[in-house]
């Protein structure tokens, strides 16, 4: 009997079109954005645009006349510092840091600066330079993805700020 009841509930839920809503995380004003970047073809810009689309945020073209919020990718900075050295005084481990600064401007409300930082360690062995170079590029791509997800979390967090300003 319990088995038949659970099958009936599953059939009813699938038949009525019920589904989870992912984009209700974002405020209504920010579900449609104009996306601007100094370099539209940079890795960070492309990854952030893809993350916006994956989260059901509509991106309108820059030349559109629709009054909508604007997400501007201001800067992306990658730095590295030495964390440890080998006995021969060669670099062994580095700390890679990525800082991304962006601004969300909502018409008739305000501009909200956003900044995220991502840090990773990287073991750098100069004897395997080609493999380590490829590994470093992979780590930086992962850092871009993590930074873009953090930016989206901060954009979703603007919900309380936007509700204050009416």
What labels would you give this structure?
166 residues; 36% helix; palmitate; lipopolysaccharide binding; cell outer membrane; LPS_assembly_LptE; membrane
Short description:
Together with LptD, is involved in the assembly of lipopolysaccharide (LPS) at the surface of the outer membrane. Required for the proper assembly of LptD. Binds LPS and may serve as the LPS recognition site at the outer membrane. By secondary structure, the protein is α/β, with parallel strands linked by helices.
Written account of the structure:
The chain is built from 4 helices and 5 strands. By secondary structure, the protein is an alpha/beta fold. It has a 5-stranded mixed beta sheet, covered by helices on one side. α2 packs across α3. The termini are far apart. 16% of the residues are buried. The model has no long low-confidence stretch (mean pLDDT 83). One of its GO terms (cellular component) is transporter complex. Component of the lipopolysaccharide transport and assembly complex. Interacts with LptD. It holds the Pfam family LptE. It comes from Frederiksenia canicola.
């Amino acid at each position: 009997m319990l088995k038949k009841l659970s099958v009936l509930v599953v059939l009813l839920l699938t038949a009525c079109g019920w589904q989870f809503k992912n984009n209700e995380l974002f405020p209504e004003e920010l579900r449609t954005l104009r996306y601007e970047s100094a370099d539209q073809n940079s890795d960070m810009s492309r990854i952030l645009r893809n993350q916006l689309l994956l989260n059901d945020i509509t991106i309108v073209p820059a030349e559109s006349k629709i009054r909508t919020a604007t997400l501007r990718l201001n800067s992306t900075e990658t730095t590295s510092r030495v964390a440890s050295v080998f006995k021969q005084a060669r670099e062994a481990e580095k700390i890679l840091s990525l800082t991304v600064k962006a601004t969300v401007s909502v018409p008739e409300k305000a501009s909200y600066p956003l900044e995220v930082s991502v840090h990773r360690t990287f073991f750098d062995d100069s004897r395997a330079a080609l493999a380590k170079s490829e590994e470093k590029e992979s780590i930086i791509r992962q850092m871009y993805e993590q930074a873009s997800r953090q930016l989206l979390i901060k954009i979703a967090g603007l919900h309380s700020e936007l509700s204050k300003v009416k």
